[in-house]
Amino acid sequence: MTVVYQVKPVLWDIDLKIPKGVLMAIVGPNGAGKSTLIKAMLGLIKPISGNVLFDGKPYKEQRSHIAYVPQSGSVDWDFPTNVLDVVLMGRYGALGWIKRPSHDDKIKSIEALEKLGMKEFADRQISQLSGGQQQRVFLARALVQDVDIYFMDEPFKGVDAKTEKAIISLLKELRERGKTVIVVHHDLQTVPEYFDWVTLLNTQIIDSGPVNVVFTEENLKKTYRSTGQILKR
Ligand SMILES: Nc1ncnc2c1ncn2[C@@H]1O[C@H](COP(=O)(O)OP(=O)(O)OP(=O)(O)O)[C@@H](O)[C@H]1O
């Protein structure tokens, strides 16, 4: 797959296979195309060439099995809706638009909020939360969707250490339930501890595979080369 904004290629000749059931980080410098890769996989951006298949089928046939948690701050939450309703929206895929959420849907939604330490905010307007709190609500919504594949764009951005721990244990729980979780991640230090699979990206794929094979000093140098960005490990 190749993606171009105006005339500049931001993803170049991407050839990537992601096995089912991995917890994978997409790692690379600022502007490497990480968010673009996720958006192109989800059909939000059209590549100039190439395509993406989920289990052999295009996104539009698989969308009910896929959830996306965008970067916090990338959604304008001006409309009046409370936290519980945002999470309940995650159940609509399972419900169809006509059915009203059941008692069970509400219980599942409240449980998800509790897991992310947001239960006491259930009645709060979503616009009245901090970025990190909104992020946790998004994650709770993704959890109740009960899909097979999760895409998350920097879920740890702007959250405190305690929330980061809660999020990673939740991601690991999803993997244990056989889900595939794909995460744009910035903190190189935590990659080996959090993830079992990694894709190194800088416009092109530098390497992709098991963390213990791919996440090497040499590959990281290649990924961050010529960016002038500091490589901290
Ligand atoms: N809608 C757009 N129109 C034009 N250029 C864009 C657009 N969105 C992103 N870009 C450019 O494409 C490149 C890749 O952006 P992208 O957001 O995918 O990178 P990223 O790896 O997620 O970066 P970061 O780590 O900083 O979030 C950047 O140079 C960015 O400026």
Automatic annotation (TrEMBL):
Record domain ABC transporter: where: 1-228
Gene3D superfamilies given in the database record: P-loop containing nucleotide triphosphate hydrolases (3.40.50.300)
GO molecular function: ATP binding; ATP hydrolysis activity
Record keywords, A-Z: ATP-binding, Nucleotide-binding, Transport
Keyword ATP-binding tagged: yes
UniProt-listed CDD domains: ABC_Metallic_Cations (cd03235)
Xref: PROSITE patterns: ABC_TRANSPORTER_1, ABC_TRANSPORTER_2
Coiled coil start-end: none
InterPro entries in the cross-refs: AAA+_ATPase, ABC_transporter-like_ATP-bd, ABC_transporter-like_CS, Metal_Ion_Import_ABC, P-loop_NTPase
Membership in a protein family: Belongs to the ABC transporter superfamily.
Protein name: ABC transporter ATP-binding protein
Native source species: Acidilutibacter cellobiosedens
